[in-house]
Amino acid sequence: MNLDIHPIITTTASSAPLLIAGPCSAESEEQMLATARGLCDAGIDIFRAGVWKPRTRPGGFEGHGRKALEWMAAVKRETGMTTATEIGCAAHAREALEAGIDILWIGARTTSSPFAMQEIADSLAGTDAAVLVKNPVCADLDLWIGAVERLYLAGIRRLGVIHRGFKVPGTTDYRNAPLWEIAEAFRREFPEIPMLCDPSHMGGMRERVAPLSAEAIARGYDGLIIESHLDPESALTDARQQVTPAMLSSILAESLPEMAAALR
Ligand code: PEP
Ligand code: MN
After folding, report:
1. Ligand in closest contact with the CA of 204
2. How far is the CA of 220 from the centre of ligand 2 (A)?
3. Residue-wise pLDDT tens for the chain (264 aa)?
4. Ligand 1 mean position, distance from CA 7 (Å)
5. Which is the closest atom of ligand 1 to the Cα of 109?
6. Ligand nearest to the Cα of 84, by number
7. Phi and psi at residue 61, to the nearest 5°
C-alpha cells in the first residue's frame, strides 16, 4: 500500500533531519524555559517534554498534566520552539491540541494496546494533528504497523514513527535492545513514513546517546528524539539517560557533524 504521508512540520526543509530534544518530564515552568533556552542555543527548535508520564508501576512521578501544558505554551511563546508531548488516551489528545501542542507522540506502552490506539485515532479524526508513533514495548512489528494504520485510517496524514528499542528477556547492553532489523522491516513496509530514533530510551545511559544517534543517522534515519535535562542527576524520571543541553551540543558537534551543520 502506498501511503499519502505529509510532513510532520513544514518550517524546516523536508530533507533536513528532525531533531527533537527536551526533558523526559515537564517538572516546572522554570525548568522548561531554562532547558528550552539551552536547547535553542544548541540550534534545536523542537522541544519535547512528558506532561503525562506512563509509569510501568504506580507510585512514581506521573506528570503535572494540564498545568504542564501551560508551561509548554510558555516555551512556545517565549522561544518560538515547536512543541511535542506524549498522549495516552483521547482526553490527552483533546487537551494537548487545545493547548496548542504542535506534535503528539504515542508512547511504547500505548502503541501496545489496540483499544487505546483506536480510541486515540477516533478522537483525532478530522484534525490535522501531527503524530509520532513509538514502537511497542515488545518486538511485535504488527502491533507497531497496526497502531499507525489505525491513525491513517482515521485520516491522520502527518505521521512519523520513533524506534526506541524493545524490551527483551534476560540482560542486554541496552535498556531496550535496538533490534535494528525490526525497524528496517517497518521501513520496507512504509518507506514514505519518516523514522526517528530515540537513543535515550534505547541506551538507558547518557554515554550511549552519541553512538546510538550516530548509528541511526548512518542507517538513514530521518531524525532523533533525545532527552535533555538541565540537571540530569536530579531529574524526576529517567535521570540516568538524560544529557544537558551543553552535552547535547557537544554530541552533535563530535558525533553528528553533518546534522550539527544542518541546524545552523
Ligand atoms: C518518554 O519518551 O519519556 C517515554 C516514556 O518513552 P517510551 O514510551 O519510549 O518508554
Ligand atoms: Mn523518558
Report:
1. 2
2. 24
3. 689 999 999 866 666 889 999 999 999 999 999 999 999 999 999 999 999 999 999 999 999 999 999 999 999 999 999 999 999 999 999 999 999 999 999 999 999 999 999 999 999 999 999 999 999 999 999 999 999 999 999 999 999 999 999 999 998 999 999 999 999 999 999 999 999 999 999 999 999 999 999 999 999 999 999 999 999 999 999 999 999 999 999 999 999 998 888 886
4. 22
5. 8
6. 1
7. -70, 120
Entry field: residues in the chain: 264
Q: Alpha-carbon torsion 228, 234, 237, 238, what sign?
A: positive
- Residue type at 27 in one-letter notation: E
Distance 108 CA to ligand 1 centre (A): 6
Residue ID of nearest Cα to ligand 1 atom 4: 107
CA of 107 to the centre of ligand 1 (A): 5
Q: By CB neighbour count within 10 A (0-12 exposed, 13-18 middle, 19+ buried), where does 73 fall?
A: middle
Domains of the chain, each with CATH number or no CATH: 18-263 (3.20.20.70)
Nearest-CA residue for ligand 1 atom 10 is 108
pTM over 0.90: yes
Residue 100: helix, strand or coil by DSSP?
coil
